[in-house]
């Protein structure tokens, strides 16, 4: 089993799109694949599950979800003071069950998801104070007989949940959108990953920087990417071009490989997937 985290503390760089489309290709190629959504925005969950994973003021988040897992980690007495629907959560995913108790099947063969929850952040302080930083790692390891690949989508912040994901992972993919501000933030991001590697997870590797929204005919993106390479950063050769097809993919809740398998953007994702898989 191989676990990948898709992480950038800058929002809007395509984390969820990259997570889901690589996971969908993985599943299409026969790997038993799980997506874990740690971002309270739940974009990955909604991408795969559609309306079922869409929440609003009058519609609760889909359960069981990753918040229920962390509630279970804390224990019933702690969580009841934090989350109003804790009793229902526990009934749907009884304490003591493994991480697989929170899995939802998608309509795509070989592809499952543990959805996010908008109130996940309410548990962060309690989880930190009780030193639960290794619980996700330990639970993911118990899934090795069930899955070949796990992809984790993270929030746009270096917080408890991101750190938990990095501790649990073998590799990290860093989305990058050819923006000058993104380039400036890369150094801090990489320092955070290296610190996690040194302190918590010596097997963690930066698999590469995924260049998203890359316009090969434009001067600035070419210059920015070249600067990254000149700085010795691990830029992956499989770069992702901009396309309106991605918005259609989101709207229809269909990963690109199922929506338009021969489209140039889909083929770019396949190239990227094959590149990272060849690194094993």
The chain-level mean pLDDT equals 91
Terminus-to-terminus distance: 12 Å
Largest sheet: 7 strands, mixed
Radius of gyration: 18 Å
Oligomer: single chain
Q: How many β-strand stretches? A: 7
Helix content: 40-55%
Question: Judging from the principal axes of the Cα atoms, what is the shape?
Answer: globular
Strand content: 5-15%
Low-confidence stretches: 76-94
- Read across the widest sheet, the strand sequence of neighbours is 3-4-2-5-1-6-7
Class inferred from helices and paired strands: alpha/beta
**What's the number of domains?**
1
What is the CATH topology? Rossmann fold
CATH superfamily: P-loop containing nucleotide triphosphate hydrolases
> What's the CATH class, please?
Alpha Beta
Q: What are the secondary-structure elements, in order, as H or E?
A: EHEHHHHEEHHEHEHEHHHH
Write the CATH architecture name.
Answer: 3-Layer(aba) Sandwich
Count of helical regions: 13
Write the topology of this structure.
Layout lengths: L1 E5 L8 H14 L4 E5 L5 H7 L16 H9 L1 H5 L5 H7 L11 E2 L5 E4 L9 H6 L5 H7 L7 E5 L6 H9 L2 E6 L3 H20 L5 E7 L7 H12 L14 H8 L3 H4 L4 H14 L3
Parallel strand pairs: 1-5, 1-6, 2-4, 2-5, 6-7
Antiparallel strand pairs: 3-4
Helix pairs in contact: 1-2, 1-13, 7-8
